[in-house]
Amino acid sequence: TQLLEQSPQFLSIQEGENLTVYCNSSSVFSSLQWYRQEPGEGPVLLVTVVTGGEVKKLKRLTFQFGDARKDSSLHITAAQPGDTGLYLCAGARGYQKVTFGIGTKLQVIP
Amino acid sequence: GAVVSQHPSRVICKSGTSVKIECRSLDFQATTMFWYRQFPKQSLMLMATSNEGSKATYEQGVEKDKFLINHASLTLSTLTVTSAHPEDSSFYICSARRSSGGVYNEQFFGPGTRLTVL
Fold this sequence. Notes:
heterodimer; A: mainly beta; six-stranded mixed sheet; 11 strands; B: mainly beta; seven-stranded mixed sheet; about 50% strand; globular
């Protein structure tokens, strides 16, 4: 059973378009992280959200944590080829181990 | 801050040999480190949780005698793949969690080690 459902799993868009990636669960998380991973490299932490309803921005990336802390979204504005990669969400409940979503593979075409 | 290194980045070995992979937290102390395995086009699969000064906790289905983990200091954990076979070929990634400060469940990942067993 996948505790964290990520969608879409694959996304191919043109440069300049906007996109949203979703991370959903039936469980409440105490914190949720978003990572980006490029081929042959380890995931890089983008953001951590801990408060229900929290919104964080990182340049063209906007992260939101659901009010009930069960879901999160990542919105990218005016995507660029450099945004290409695998986006992973990861959630934890208290001191339990972190669970990763299956990932969203994004391709931004110039 | 929060940099994690892994060594080696790539290793090719013959079947039956053992391979050691090092994971270091360079600018923070990590009481807990994690070892993951990643297959092509798939997400991360947690293999084990490494705790400084104590035995590692292995996930179900992961052979502890095959994947030896040693977390001897607050900045170093090692994974040794013993008697490697071709099916052990994979991308191994470690991560580290800060001992203090920051958000408890944040993990910082190393760059990964590509293991190829011939």
